[in-house]
Each structure stands twice: as structure tokens, then as C-alpha cells.
Sequence to fold (133 residues):
Amino acid sequence: MERIDQVVETCNIRLKRMKCVAMEGLIEEGQELIDEIEKGPVLDAGLVAAAQKVEHYEIAAYGSLCAIGKQLRFAEGVKLLEATLEEEKATDLKLSEFAERAGNANASQQDGEDETTRKSSSKSKAGHAKAEA
Ligand SMILES: [Fe+2]
Fold:
């Protein structure tokens, strides 16, 4: 927000503050995941995806603002907006790395559980099959 204020000041423009309905919707989607999915790897994966939707939206918005700012020759403002754009991209990358690490950890944990299941008696497998039926 401070940087946006700087952009407004640097470019000598006036800005009408508005609520971003799209962003509110993305945040609401994340809240729905929290409300509907129990804590665990599935919720974690969903929340990372929800956060990445937010980052991608921000990347689109700041990317567009940078392009428009360049066309209007607001060099100083564009520099500030590009700094924010790079931060959004870095956050998106961190989220991707986190999701990949978490996915790998869950996959290897599941492999371990599969191994345990294979080693355990057939009784538990029969119980599991019953639960699914
Ligand atoms: Fe962000």
C-alpha cells in the first residue's frame, strides 16, 4: 500500500480506492477450503493453490500496470511497480517450491504407509475394503 501511495505521488496521479471484488472472491475460496476440508495434506495443498491464485492475480495486475506505466512514460512509478511485481513472482515461486516439497513428503509418507499396509495382516486390508464399500 505504501508503494502504491509512492507511485501515485511519483506519477502525480489521483487514485480512487476501490475494493477488489475478484480478490475478495479468491480469499473467500480459501476460506471455503478451510471450512470444508479437515486439517491435513489435502487442505494444505488446497491452500497453497488458493494462495497461488492470489499471487497470479497480483502478477497479472502489476504486470498490466507496468505496461501501462511504460506507455505513459511514468518511469519512476514503473520502477516501483516492477519491484512489487518481482516480489509477487518470488512469492509464487516460494509457494511452488513449498507445494512440491510438501507433495513429495506426503508421497514418501504414503509410500511408507503402503509398505506398512503390505507388511501388516490381510485383516486390516479387508477392513479398509469394507470401509470403502
Ligand atoms: Fe502477493
